[in-house]
Amino acid sequence: QIVLISGHLDSWDVGQGAMDDGGGAFISWEALSLIKDLGLRPKRTLRLVLWTGEEQGGVGAEQYYQLHKENISNFDIVMESDEGTFKPSGLAFTGSAKARDIVKEIMTLLQPINVTKVYDDADGTDINYWMRDGVPGASLRDDLSKYFWFHHSQGDTMTVQDPNQMNLCAAVWTVVSYVIADMEEMLPR
């Protein structure tokens, strides 16, 4: 059984792609790194996918889906960060009402950093195939007020990234992915 966390590595035609979507790739990598450093071993596999070709029609995600869809019942949740890694406010979630209640309970663990909201309708080019077929999905929600200042521009460089805000995003990704991966049962479909 698999809990998939992800971001993509396909900067657009200008800039470095540090925010879109290097930040999402980084926090996904960091989540696994933190879990390993803490010596935690969840019941399910945590899988990091660093997608390619998202800007070119999601060809990397489609290829991955085609290769793994025969095991779709083993995918517990698919998570994608693709709207920058600014100050997080919560998760957008797509799934059953029972699964949403569980995610809301998990998010209460993040009260100390004030990131507890669960929004409707997760979104992400790279996880949409899975959600369409009934796998629960989550996408990071963060402060988008500056996102389009840098999106697909020469300004999308490492200087856009705020280490403190990225740490908060990584904390959200780490807690949610680990708790879901370590629950007794998979999220209800």
TrEMBL record:
Highest taxon above the source species: Eukaryota
Keywords: Carboxypeptidase, Endoplasmic reticulum, Glycoprotein, Golgi apparatus, Hydrolase, Lysosome, Metal-binding, Metalloprotease, Protease, Secreted, Signal, Zinc, Zymogen
Main localization of the protein described in the UniProt heading: endoplasmic reticulum
Residue intervals of the Peptidase M28 domain: 2-173
Any single GO CC term annotated in Swiss-Prot or TrEMBL for this entry: Golgi apparatus
One Pfam family of this chain: Peptidase_M28
Xref: Gene3D superfamilies: Zn peptidases
Localization: Endoplasmic reticulum; Golgi apparatus; Lysosome; Secreted
Annotated GO biological process: peptide catabolic process; proteolysis; thyroid hormone generation
GO molecular function: carboxypeptidase activity; metal ion binding; metallodipeptidase activity
Subunit and interaction comment: Homodimer. The monomeric form is inactive while the homodimer is active.
PANTHER family found in the cross-reference section: CARBOXYPEPTIDASE Q, PROTEASE FAMILY M28 PLASMA GLUTAMATE CARBOXYPEPTIDASE-RELATED
Family from the record: Belongs to the peptidase M28 family.
Official protein name in the record: Carboxypeptidase Q
Native species: Ardeotis kori
Lineage: Eukaryota, Metazoa, Chordata, Craniata, Vertebrata
